Amino acid sequence: MSGLFEKYRSTLIGKTVGEVWRGHGSIFLECAEPGAVMRRDGLTDQLLGHYTVMIEGGWRIEDGASMMCDQSSDPVAWDAVSGRLAGSTIEDARLGANSELSVQLSGGLRLVSVAAPGEQPGWRIFDRRSVPGEEVWIKVKDGAIFEDR
Known about the structure:
By secondary structure, the protein is mainly beta. It has one domain (3-148). The chain is built from 2 helices and 13 strands, in the order αβββββββαββββββ. The protein has helices at residues 3-12, 75-85, and strands at residues 16-23, 26-32, 39-41, 46-48, 51-55, 58-63, 66-70, 90-95, 101-105, 109-114, 123-127, 136-141, 144-148. Strands 1-2-5-11-12-13 form a 6-stranded antiparallel β-sheet. The protein has a 5-stranded antiparallel β-sheet with strand order 7-6-10-9-8. Strand 6 (58-63) and strand 7 form a beta hairpin. The longest helix is centred in the middle third of the chain and has 11 residues, at 75-85. It is globular, with a radius of gyration of 14 Å. It starts with a helix and ends with a strand. Mean pLDDT is 88; it is low at 42-46.
């Protein structure tokens, strides 16, 4: 595990998932310190977390060995699972093969990025707390973990 990923991973563990949403094939987990109130993002009218896990492209949500839904699931399946994600706590985050992201949540659910063959995983972890007034994030770039602003 890269030192840069470990830095972001350690900030996520124990955070509460306040808002879960998806759009254009992406999923967003908006996270905050336990008991914190998140502010509104005027551009999307979604809650904007202190930390955000975003996966664009391929992703799935698992419960043990079962897939509960993915980026192409219908609204009924999504509503059932998103209701379980909101209010959960991030227990762990790991990198798998080809830098795929796996986020373990309380309640037994896991969010996993899924890259298409020959593609890099399309995930980001945003940090809006460590640099006041700025948003920094990590992502996979050319097979390595890279920090950007």
